[in-house]
Design goal:
The protein is an alpha/beta fold and 360 residues long. It has one domain. It contains six helices and nine strands. It has helices spanning 11-62, 85-89, 96-101, 122-125, 239-251, 340-345; strands at residues 82-83, 152-157, 202-206, 228-231, 271-272, 281-283, 292-295, 321-326, 331-335. The strands form three sheets. A five-stranded mixed β-sheet has the order 6-2-3-8-9. A two-stranded antiparallel ribbon has the order 1-5. A two-stranded parallel ribbon has the order 4-7. The termini are far apart. It comes from Paludisphaera borealis. Residues 33-339 form the DUF1559 domain.
């Protein structure tokens, strides 16, 4: 009997099959990555939604919105660090045990003073709270390690250049500071203070968390949105032209420009400082995902955490924009290409701007 030979694949056929599989994988991977990012963005949206609901519950209990910083308090240091809005919201985001464990008699730095955080409050302040962290951020170590940081930041307000030259700057947002104020009208903000309408006023957004150790970052670096640079801009009272002058100076910085600081964004979730905006707040000055810049004329240029006359825009790793929680509790996605006057308008709580719902 004749033996029958079994015919196998030729080399060409094998290469064709491999090529087809490679093409299918190349087509599939972006879809998988896109689906994963969509899930992360949905989780980020939910985190902001929960913060918005927490604020409304906070208002029900306290009749005011939480503040960026409670400075001055009896426990804070002479330079103004005090409790931030994150600490006050703990009971309203299902973190009552953490809130109850915090010893307010010790303060942020402890009664002895010095430069060490939370003496006696380490357990609480070192918590990494999932509701304060965007899953798309990608940073594993917090900037004030081992202390916990935050991806979510409160609306500090619109451009300081649009404010009166006699005021402290951009105190027109929903998360306002309590310390170092010269404006006699500055203080806690209630829902009645949001005269522009809660659906047209920002409450929270997100910022990419800073880097531990504050390494030097150039403007061309992939982590440039996590850093803060310094530009020369005008002071308060210079109007829209002054805002554009600041943004032009910030955008004109050469790609090789080194950062002033790269650990400021979301530095801690539990502490705040009135002039250190980037710690737990952001401003409506530069467009979303643009570079952050201090203003060298702001308080003598020492505000390396971004001051009221600088630009600390929201930022994220979501393609094309950032998530933003409005004062009515809704969450919207703001594109990087948003019209700047519109962006400034939703940053103020009582600016009287006329804003269309399809403008952002």
């Amino acid at each position: 009997m004749r033996s029958r030979s079994v015919r196998g694949f030729t080399l060409i056929e094998l290469l064709v099959v491999i090529a087809i599989i490679a093409v299918l994988i190349a087509l599939l991977l972006p879809a998988v990555q896109s689906a994963r990012e969509a899930a992360r963005r949905a989780q980020c949206t939910n985190n902001l939604k929960q913060l918005g609901l927490a604020v409304h519950n906070y208002i029900s209990s306290n009749e005011v919105l939480p503040m960026q910083s409670l400075a001055p308090t009896a426990q804070d240091q002479s330079w103004g660090w005090s409790y931030g809005w994150g600490l006050g919201l703990l009971p309203f985001i299902e973190q009552q045990p953490a809130f109850s464990s915090f010893n307010f008699s010790l303060g942020i730095f402890g009664n002895a003073g010095g430069n060490t955080y939370q003496q006696g409050n380490n357990t609480v302040c070192q918590l990494k709270i999932a509701g304060f962290l965007c899953p798309s951020d990608g940073v594993k170590k917090m900037p004030a390690d081992p202390n916990g940081g935050t991806s979510y930041v409160g609306n500090y307000g619109g451009p300081g250049q649009l404010a009166s030259a006699a005021s402290d700057g951009a105190y027109s947002g929903t998360i306002v500071p309590n310390g170092f104020k010269t404006d006699p009208n500055l203080g806690p903000v209630g829902i009645e203070s949001i005269r522009d309408g809660t659906s047209n006023t920002a409450l929270f957004s997100e910022r990419l968390i800073g880097l531990v150790g504050s390494p030097s970052i150039t403007k061309a670096d992939k982590d440039a949105k996590r850093a803060i640079f310094t530009a020369a801009g005008p002071a308060a009272g210079t109007g829209a032209a002054g805002v554009q002058q600041l943004l032009a100076a910030c955008n004109a910085l050469p790609p090789t420009t080194a950062s002033t600081r790269s650990d400021a964004n979301g530095y801690t979730w539990f502490a705040g400082y009135p002039y250190h905006i980037a710690v737990n707040a952001y401003t409506h000055v530069g467009a979303p995902n643009s570079v952050s810049c201090n203003n060298s004329v702001d308080q003598g240029g020492w505000l390396t955490f971004t001051g009221p006359l600088g630009s600390a825009p929201p930022s994220s790793n979501h393609p094309g924009g950032v998530n933003m929680a409005m004062a009515d509790g809704s969450v919207r996605f703001l594109k990087d290409s948003i019209n700047l006057p519109t962006f400034w308008g939703i940053g103020t709580r009582a600016g009287g701007e006329v804003i269309s719902s399809d403008a952002y």
